[in-house]
Here is the input.
Amino acid sequence: MVQQIPLDSDDRADEIKRDDGTREIAADLAYLRTIMANVIYVGLPGAGDRNWVLVDAGVVGGKSTIKGAAEDRFGANARPAAIILTHGHFDHVGSLEDLVDEWDAPVFAHQLELPYLNGNASYPDGDPSVGGGLMASLAGFLPTRPVDVSTRLSSLPDDGSIPFLSGWTWIHTPGHSPGHISLWRERDKALIVGDAFITTAAESAYATAFQTPELHGPPKYFTIDWKKAKTSVESLAALSPNLVITGHGRAMEGPDLTQKLGDLARDFERIAVPWQGRYVEAPANAEDGTAYRQR
Here is the structure.
């Protein structure tokens, strides 16, 4: 059974590898891999203090690396105007509390994601039954507890705008989590998708380590509503993005990527949905509260 769409070198975004470990893919866009997941820097090099934005916050222990890369890119002691979260899974908020304390920065996320960020609720348990590799087999042991940045946390505006990011809008792309969002910039068709879909096999420790370029749906072991996940990928494919940064894997661009993303949307059940799994038959969602485990 097909579980991925191969990507080749022509699909990869043109990148400038910087000494700070980031990969610059546009004048004001760079990303940094933090063991498992990417963090994204939005802003021009040398922008200075409070003139750039960080998207997501990597894994536990990544504060120094994320902060160091930021200072190399934007200037000594440069702090972000805000931290925007695509969602609150452990590999996207691992360094959030430390960075927020260091930078005194506001944090914005979707309203449905706030319980995981204000200490009130944990995610549903990961599902090792989906298969696909070592990371999936360990899913039951991966952290699902919330972080607490409630003193600096706000919901994203209902109108789709993103504070401190002119020209960008947020799109609700649930399925992987209830309040998952993606970020879209129309003028150059740039898309930051978090884990709505990814460009490597998150279930495989080998693929995670070596960034095997493949187009996948969201990480299977943490996705809790596959019907919504499909609808989210369909909405993103309809944008025909030219440049995509995902939460896992390399950035991709070009017309071939657009076509392959369309293929993923059309054949989502066969390519992305596991043939078995706890949440395949019984999704967890915000509507009935099953997506939130109270602490």
Summary: The chain has nine helices and 17 strands. The chain has a mean pLDDT of 92.
